[in-house]
Amino acid sequence: MAPAGVVDDSRTQEMQADVAAALEQRRQRRYLVRALLRSPTFVIGVLIVLFWVFMGIFSTAFTQSPLAQHPFAILQSPSAAHWFGTDDLGRDVLARTMAGARTVLIIAPLATLLALLWGGIIGLIAGFYRGITDDIIMRLVDVLLALPVIITSILILSLFGKSLAIVIVVIGALFTPVVSRTIRSAVIGEREREYVMAARLRGERSAFVMAREILPNITQPIIVEGTVRLGYAVFTAATLSFLGFGLGPPSPDWGLTIATERVDLQSAPWTVLFPAFALASLVVGVNLITDGLSSVFSK
User: What integer pLDDT is reported at residue 44 of this predicted model?
Assistant: First the structure.
């Protein structure tokens, strides 16, 4: 049996190592935060996204109802009364553009979270176990990656309906394969490192090693992949709405608005251009965040 003094010294050293590791993690987090705040690309992207989040939540506090009709102001060009003009039912385009962010900002983040959850589980299992498990999972992933996202989404929604929940699940499921490949690559790079080998030698269960040892060390590629998928999810949600597989009229959803108002594109272009610019700005904002994160994490 080891002397009491040796045991106490061992415990003290372990506590000191834990404290040092915690301080190092805190220092790294502070460095990343400062680096991101010094990145103009990241800051501009965050401001754009936060603007649309704010508008999606509080748009009616600054504009009139997006459903309010003005029979005597149909297809009115932008003016002091209606800054973005009105549509074919006399509805204020500014109000509808602001409120239109709501739907896409519900669908895209939730679909992205589902893709990260499912893709994370699949990628962790495939990258950690390798061998025949990895081969089987990756061949199935390759098959799913060969499916065109929009066409597959339309087929599934035609079969099961086009409710908001189903749209979220479908987009999340179709983005899962590409997320799983990214996370698998990150796990493969970590599984042979010393801290993973030490956990195995301690007799830790595989689930514990994946969740408590590997996962915290691959958060950076997961975050970057999440922002990339978020941009694609925004575009996919708007595309499905444009094709008639999202919310129906009189929703101010951007994709639906562009689809229904495109007949007036030549005579009243403002009814289409403002929602289109709003959608483009949100996608650009998400991509700027992705670029900022990638540049900081790669240093």
Answer: 95
